[in-house]
Amino acid sequence: MENTSGVGVLDKVTSILGTLEAGPTTLAGLVAATGLARPTAHRLAVALEQHRLVARDLQGRFALGPRLTELSAAVGEDRLLSAAGPVLAHLRDLTGESAQLYRRQGEVRICVAAAERLSGLRDTVPVGIALPMKVGSAAQILLAWEEPERLHRGLQGARFTATALSGVRRRGWAQSIGEREAGVASVSAPVRGPAGRVVAAVSVSGPIERLTRHPGARLSQAVVEAAGRLGEALRQP
């Protein structure tokens, strides 16, 4: 542990959380990354799990827990969520389709904000719902710029391929047709934080009969611009 505060247990907890920031890992992975003794790493990780700062994924690995998202949202009213309301509403009005903002949390993505189409047939995604990282254009965005090991792991069982994600990185946006739900299409773009890291995905979604089987051709520019505005909000001093 390079950075120490002089408070041993706090430094150990911080090293565990810092390791999990790169993605879920096993107890052995925690021990290797932190240098902690196995019993210590296990005791602290389980204690953090009790406080929801750490969770377990479907494979039983340790991952960052939901409490961190809740704390992040409470800090300064969370700049991203504060900016999301008007940006998503504008995107909805511009495209005529429902707009959403997703963040990744372990092996799922959470809808953290939404602006629903006001009338007619729509794709309703409730705020707070957890959706899989294996389907949908937002999942493609949240996975496409991950480190190789995590990207490879995320592709296992996914409805999209490594080649498709290569195209996403090249274009700067993703589309899906019937991946998450039959009859629904979507287009998504990445929101980048101050360091350039992808921290969220902006999406528009609606019935294929309106969006067509090539929704990106019509909607990608508006979605990319909306994602850019949210990124600018995160970079403001």
Number of strands: 8
Globally, the shape reads: elongated
Cα distance spanning the termini: 30 Å
Average of per-residue pLDDT values: 90
Spatial arrangement of strands, main beta sheet: 5-4-3-8-7-6
Low-confidence stretches: none
Based on secondary structure, the structural category is: alpha+beta
Estimated share of beta-strand residues: 15-25%
CATH topology of the largest domain: Beta-Lactamase
Spell out the helices and strands N to C. Answer: HHHEEHHEEEHHHEEEHH
The assigned CATH architecture of the largest domain is 2-Layer Sandwich
Number of helical elements: 10
Gyration radius, to the nearest Å?
Answer: 19 Å
Q: What is the CATH C-level name of the largest domain? A: Alpha Beta
Organism: Kitasatospora arboriphila
Keywords: DNA-binding, Transcription, Transcription regulation
Domain IclR-ED: 67-236
Protein name: IclR family transcriptional regulator NdgR
Provide structural commentary:
The protein has ten helices and eight strands. The protein starts with 7 loop residues before the first helix and ends with a helix. The longest helix is centred in the C-terminal third of the chain and has 21 residues, at 215-235. The mean pLDDT is 90. The protein has helices spanning 8-20, 27-34, 38-50, 66-74, 79-95, 137-144, 148-155, 162-171, 208-211, 215-235; strands at 54-56, 62-64, 98-105, 108-115, 130-132, 174-177, 184-192, 198-207. The chain has two domains: 8-70, Winged helix-like DNA-binding domain superfamily/Winged helix DNA-binding domain (Arc Repressor Mutant, subunit A, Orthogonal Bundle); 78-235, GAF domain (Beta-Lactamase, 2-Layer Sandwich), CATH 3.30.450.40. The protein has a six-stranded antiparallel β-sheet. Strands 1-2 form a two-stranded antiparallel ribbon. The radius of gyration is 19 Å and the shape is elongated. Helices cover 47% and strands 20% of the residues. By secondary structure, it is an alpha+beta fold. Residues 67-236 form the IclR-ED domain. Keywords: DNA-binding, Transcription, Transcription regulation. Residues 7-66 form the HTH iclR-type domain. This is IclR family transcriptional regulator NdgR. It comes from Kitasatospora arboriphila.
